[in-house]
Amino acid sequence: MITKSAYLAVVVLLLTCQISKGQEGGNSFQKVDDSAVAKPKSNLTYEYQYLNDDHTEGIEKSYSNGKLKTEIHFKEKGKFQAAKSYDTKTGRLIKTDTIVDFKKLVGTTTTYYANGNPKEMEHRDTSGAVDRYSAYFESGKRRIVISYRDGKRNGLMTEYNPNGTVKETGTYVNDKREGVFKFYDVRGQLIVSRKFKADKVVK
């Protein structure tokens, strides 16, 4: 699954959007050298575009050595943001996030292959808990879809072959296989069914 190790870094970047309040009016771009706002000094600089006069809505961009690193859309005084992360060497989009109140991830986090197709998608409900996970082949076709509840696999899981046919399907309860799982060949023909109880085959 997608990790959240970069989340704190994103939050730090989001917090910097407050430093320019009281400066120029709406629809303006401003560049800020991070040496003036952060210690120790790094190679990051920031650019802001405000979309209204009170600076509560706009876009913040960060650059590493002049290369775009993040792009954050904020509004309603920071209550909602969409964040994008880029590879500073290639310029390609590597991840998108939705963030609420700087504290929790809500919505969908998506990572991408080099060709621009989604690699993994992790959806979170309004509490910030994961409720659905999807992964894809580089071709763009689905690889796996899993339902989650309380941080564990709960609900239907479906895994696919590269050609789009179903490879395996069944239900999880608290991270354990429960009930009938079906396994298919690459043509989509059923190979075998197995009944599970608490992750163990019973029939």
TrEMBL record:
Annotated signal sequence range: 1-22
Q: Does the keyword Transmembrane helix apply?
A: no
Q: Any stretches that span the bilayer, and where are they?
A: none
InterPro entries the record matches: MORN_2
Highest taxon in the source lineage: Bacteria
Alphabetized, the UniProt keywords read:
Signal
Q: Which Pfam families match?
A: MORN_2
The answer to whether the entry has keyword Signal is: yes
Descriptive protein name? Toxin-antitoxin system YwqK family antitoxin
Q: Which species does this protein come from?
A: Niastella caeni
